[in-house]
Amino acid sequence: MGLSKILIRILIRIFLTLTVTVFFTSCASKPALVEKDNTIAVWDLDDLSLSTTVRPNLGEILSSQIIEAIKKRGDYAVVERQRLLLALEELRLGTTQLADETTRLKLGRILGARFMVFGGYQIIGNQMRLDLRLVEVETGKVLRAVPKTTSAADLQGWIDTARKAAEELL
Question: What pLDDT does 52 receive?
Answer without folding.
Answer: 64
